[in-house]
Amino acid sequence: MKVMKEMTQTVNSKWWQRAVIYQIYPRSFADSNGDGIGDLQGIIAKLDYLEMLGIDAIWLSPVCRSPQDDNGYDISDYRDIDPMFGTLADMEELIQEAQKHHIRIIMDLVLNHSSDEHYWFQEAKKSRENPYHDYYVWRDGAEGEYPNDMRAAFGGSAWEWVPEIQQYYFHQFSVKQPDLNWENPKLRQEIYDMINWWIGKGVGGFRLDVIDQIAKEPDKKITNNGPRLHEYLRELSRETFQKADLVTVGEAWGATTELAKLYSNPDNSELSMVFQFEHICLDQIEGKEKWDLAPLPFMKLKEVFGRWQTELCGKGWNSLFWNNHDLPRIVSRWGNDGQYRVESAKMLAVLLHGLQGTPYIYQGEELGMTNVQYEIEDYRDIETLNLYRERLEKGYSREEIMRSIHAKSRDNARTPMQWNDGANAGFTEGTPWLKINPNYREIHAKGQIGDEDSIFSCYQKLIRLRKEYSVFVDGDFQMLLENDRNIFAYTRTNADSRLLVVCNFYDTTVSYSLEEDVTDMELLISNYKDADQTGVLRPYEARMYLKK
Ligand code: GLC
Ligand code: CA
Known about the structure:
Elements (H helix, E strand, L loop, with lengths): L1 H11 L8 E4 L15 H6 L1 H7 L3 E4 L3 E2 L11 E5 L6 H13 L3 E6 L9 H6 L13 E3 L18 E4 L4 E4 L14 H16 L4 E4 L20 H11 L7 E5 L5 H7 L9 E3 L22 H15 L6 E2 L9 H4 L7 H13 L4 E5 L19 H12 L4 H11 L2 H4 L30 H4 L6 H14 L2 H4 L1 E5 L6 E7 L4 E7 L5 E2 L10 E5 L9 E2 L4 E6 L1
Parallel strand pairs: 1-2, 1-13, 2-5, 5-9, 9-10, 10-11, 12-13
Antiparallel strand pairs: 3-4, 6-8, 7-8, 14-15, 15-16, 16-20, 17-19, 18-20
Helix pairs in contact: 8-9, 11-16, 12-13
This protein binds alpha-D-glucopyranose (GLC) and calcium ion (CA).
């Protein structure tokens, strides 16, 4: 029976559908040389830790050469490693060493824009006749008269004037991140060559930064989901990804379930999957920015998850995540980082890892790392600093701005990894580039490894279970207790077995009744020691059952 199951798995599913992927933000993971910044050798030194956790692949946020205006999301050489992180030889070593630990390396491809210090842009801005000029998006105009009123994501106009050639260039992010012109076939070919060069180095896949913005049409004020987007993606995939057995995940803020079926069509014509953000944008005032805080509408959260699970089943593939380097820590955000930190972190893990899709764990999530509340001087993130300045100018009070920053700043996720309770949490022997979360004395990896009640062990177990039971990969999703205002419950069912997940999302005790009979089910995992089965869930209680 066991053998049979494994056979069906290998025939019907792809490696990345059975995988769990771990995201590393290199500058905050582990510093090997005492300069206060994490690096590639630091990651190599932690491969044992990652193998112990059980993950299959690492998504590395950008490590290519970069002036670091946006922490590496502004690349000045796509074929070299930034000296801050190491050398190309270190990268090759990481790919090989990771392989020995059964871990693949997924690189972050930033293809919507480059750094303004990239050779292409340096050339492009020399003259309108320069062969690289058309690698970027230019419009005529007069100084001070912008082509239109489009705004950049990090504040200010999306247009920047270059007096030498009397033109504006378009940038959806910072002024140091000029947008690449995908309409130019030469630029596209250049990108494919670069990707194939990395594939040749043995990487396991790619995460594609803001990929749904590459087909912009600024004259029509189109940023996401431009008319030629899927044409570009199909060409990109054909020219690169399809030549190897890779995982590809696109960051797509504008994705709907309909679009996600195109992106992640099982015919492999575009990508393996996308990150969609419908669930993660729920706690903000509708139509406003993430900084405009609103309580999480829990019923809506259930509706969103349910819809993505049902609609993509068999027709696409979901990515599953609570965190990344741009988002606040989930335990502080939708869990409870006080009294119930451990319970709620585990509940959120159980809820997510039982769903259909590929789960992503962001560094420190497996320890229940939390948000921080720093003074503005201690923040480093360009988005946070610009927001602070902009809102002060607009007349917001300091308190109100800081409340938004404490809740949503990207630096919440970027504080250094907490390895132990020693100096600098074991992250560096120097001065960390961003202050360490002061709670590192209580929350750190060393204290959790080997402790069967720890959050780390919970993640370890969830990863192991996914490998053991095919129902995690191919089971059909069914939402239960749809109208319950506290509980998130569902089943996953395939020919062999049935998974039942019941989670209390809040800090009060609640009761429920299910038709499902759990007496003949095995309790696979729970976050309370004495998990009774009486139809009551204590604060943040989570249970996962299996019926074989
Ligand atoms: C993506 C990245 C983010 C970056 C932006 C611009 O959203 O995740 O960190 O700032 O793209 O590259
Ligand atoms: Ca370093």
